[in-house]
Amino acid sequence: MPLTLQEVEHIAKLARLELTEEEKARYREQLSAILDYVAQLQRLDTSSIPPTASIFSGDSHLRPDEPRPALPREALLKNAPEHEQGQFKIPPVFE
Amino acid sequence: MDYEAVIGLETHIQLNTESKIFCACKADSWNAEPNTNICPVCTGMPGVLPVLNRRVVEKGVLLAAAMHAEIQPVSYFDRKNYFYPDLPKGYQISQYDRPLAKGGYLDVPQADGSIRRVTIWKMHMEEDAGKTKNDPLTGTRLIDFNRCGVPLIEMVTGPDLRSADEAANYLIRLRQLLRWIGVSEADMEKGHLRCDANVSVRQKGETILNTKTEIKNVNSIEAVRTAITKEIERQIREYQSGGKVEAWTLEWDEDTQTLKKMRSKETEADYRYFREPDLLPVYLTDEWKVKILETLPELPLERRARFVQEYKLPEYDAELLTSERSLSDYFEATVRAYGGDPKRVSNWLMNDVLRMLNETGQTAAELALTPTYLADIIRFVDAGTVNANTGKSLLQKVNVSGKSPAEIIQAEGLAKVSDDDAIRAVVEQVLAESPKEVESYKNGKTGLMGWFVGQVMKKMQGKADAQKARALLEKHLN
Q1: What is each CA distance from B215 to B3, B171, B198, B439, in whole angstroms?
Q2: Measured distance CA(B220)–CA(B10) in Å, rounded
Q3: Worst-scoring range by mean pLDDT, A13-17, B40-44, B307-311, B411-415?
Q4: CB 3.0–4.6 Å: which of B54, B121, B353, B392 could bond A62 by disulfide?
Q5: How far apart, in whole angstroms, are the C-alpha atoms of residue B339 and residue B350?
Q6: Using CA atoms, how far apart are residues B57 and B77, in angstroms rounded to an integer?
Q7: Torsion angle of C-alpha atoms B287, B290, B294, B295, degrees rounded to 10
């Protein structure tokens, strides 16, 4: 089942990607092929098998509620293109 | 035509853990400088892994039990994908189709004595996002990630509330419960308890659900009351004038006390939930669950009912004394230490101890005036060792000094003087010093008796047995 062009555009929008018409056509083909491949699994009857959320079992590996020192603020801010008053600075948000 | 409102509330509850939900950064950033409680995990750096905080599960389980929800032995975390600058990973770790708890309800007493049972449709654990604020000078936005990864419980009610007051009462009871079981500070001003309201109206007697609007950002009890009232009125006006209600998202503006329509989203939310592959399922073993639930205290409404039943308190007293858990514990401890009429303890608590709590900002558990000391004071007053006024002044003295009432009575010589000779001497002195008042009294101004008693008390630093003083004065004057 090939994806529609609208579906490709919707997915691109959700991922904040701008695609050219040529790219849309190419990804439509590629994504459809991937989905078709995965869809083969749908043919198996798995109604009696619980879904696998993890291959580990029995232990959630929890952490005790003990705070540890934070990372120095400068270390994180230096990854940002811009910052001001100890905060990340970004362009105005849509809406 | 009569209309009724149909309201459901979506609340976000900040759990009062020490550290964040998936990393060891400090959870509470109140008054902290921006971006000082952050690390690679909560700022979404590549290659990091979240590790779930045990206490978050425990507090979640406690809340679920208090809400009479079905606690799930296995639950999962999922990714909720969306782009927003306050969410550095591009997804929020939340729970979706297999949350920690299912169902549940909260019984909410109303002003007329009835109970509104509010069902819970959704309850799950998730992480909070950061904070963004506009810089009006440059038109840019500044982002603080301190709040990223702070543990939340999201709880959504069914459309069960029927008025703005009922919605406000729900929040009041929820806040009481959260503090009572110790899972959240539930301070709305600090954003520990946040609320969005879904509101629609319909003709009374109908069972359909009409189009609803969603009110965002109603973050105080009063805002909930006012915003919902205004929205109900607007929707009724709309229907009465033949218009229709559209599914708007409204934002409450606290400054202007008005609702503003928010720009509708470009498309319906498409969060593409899927299982969080970086976290293991949450296995709640029976053993662990039992251990957690051992710490669940008697709940506020149960305790209120028991106070009425067991101690024969009026509803009013029981309600006030169970407004907060440490106060109700304090009351019971005092009743046990006192051994007499619980209503007498209640009176002392409601009149004097509550005022002291308000003035000092202490909780009952923090008072140096312990339940044992309070019981001592009430007993000293009962026995006539001190008079009532001295008893009341003892409350302060004990709380400030931490010394026992007996010690203070001894040290300051506060014991009531009931010795007739001692009082008679002072009575004679007062009468001798006040010839004018004595004259007036004898001419029929008997209202002066109170003044004479006052003079005697004053000379005896309030320690005289007032009834004896009065009797002796009358004897001398008549």
Answers
A1: 20, 15, 6, 74
A2: 14
A3: B411-415
A4: B54
A5: 18
A6: 12
A7: 80
pLDDT exceeds 90 at position B1: no
Q: With an 8 Å Cβ cutoff, are B280 and A56 in contact?
A: yes
Cβ contact, residue pair A53, B281, below 8 Å: yes
- Share above pLDDT 90 across residues of chain B, in percent, rounded to a whole number: 73
Spatial contact of A87 and B147, defined as CB atoms under 8 Å apart: no
Task: Tell me how close the Cα of A91 comes to any Cα of chain B, in angstroms.
Answer: 5
Res A93 pLDDT > 70? no
B193-203 vs B3-14, strand pairing mode: antiparallel
Let me know: does B86 contact B130? Beta carbons within 8 Å: yes
CATH 3.90.226.10 fits A5-42, yes or no: no
CA closest to B90 among chain A residues: A15
Query: What sign does the CA torsion over B63, B65, B70, B74 have?
Result: positive
Residue of A nearest to B275 (CA): A53
CATH of B420-477, picked from 2.40.160.10, 1.10.3210.10, 1.10.10.410, 1.20.1250.20, is 1.10.10.410
pLDDT given at position B443: 86
Tens of pLDDT along B325-354?
Answer: 999 999 999 999 999 999 999 999 999 999
Query: Domain locations in chain B?
Result: 3-291, 300-412, 420-477
Place of tokens 């007996």: B406
Residues of chain A whose C-beta is under 8 A from some C-beta in B? Answer: 10, 13-14, 16, 53-54, 56-68, 70-71, 73, 76-77, 84-93, 95
ipTM associated with this complex: 0.87
- What pLDDT is stored for residue A54 in this prediction? 67
CB-based contact B241:B272 (threshold 8 Å): no
Q: Write down the mean pLDDT value for chain B.
A: 92
Q: Cα(B335)–Cα(B328) distance, rounded to whole angstroms? A: 11
Residue B9 · residue B199 · CB < 8 Å: no
Sequence ranges of the domains in chain A:
5-42
**DSSP assignment of B126-145, as one string?**
EE---EEEEETTTTEEEEE-
Residue A22: how many CB atoms within 10 A of its CB? 8
Mean pLDDT of B191-210: 94
Q: Pick from B51, B139, B145: which is nearest to A92 by CB?
A: B139
Distance in angstroms (rounded) separating the CA atoms of residues B92 and B79: 6
Taking the C-alpha atoms of residue B42 and residue B130, their distance in angstroms, rounded to an integer, is 9
Alpha helices in B256-368 (DSSP H): 286-293, 300-311, 315-321, 325-338, 342-348, 354-360
